[in-house]
């Protein structure tokens, strides 16, 4: 019976430590992304394409 309690206790401790470790990695990644500057925006002039001629049913 004590073996079952020991295994259960170890499993819970490992789960709690693992969750904390994963949570901390996720939080550090979020901080890294938050502090990363976005790439500089290059304003590219938009070139208008050729205007389409209206279509007529008669022609």
TrEMBL record:
Basic and acidic residues: compositionally biased ranges: 32-45
Stretches that traverse the bilayer: 6-23
Region called Disordered, residue ranges: 32-59
UniProt keywords, alphabetically: Membrane, Transmembrane, Transmembrane helix
Name this protein carries in UniProt: Uncharacterized protein
């Amino acid at each position: 019976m004590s073996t079952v309690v020991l295994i259960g206790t170890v499993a819970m401790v490992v789960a709690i430590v693992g969750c904390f470790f994963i949570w901390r990695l996720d939080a550090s990644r979020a901080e890294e992304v938050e502090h990363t500057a976005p790439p500089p925006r290059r304003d590219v002039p938009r070139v208008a394409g050729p205007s389409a001629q209206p279509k007529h049913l008669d022609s």
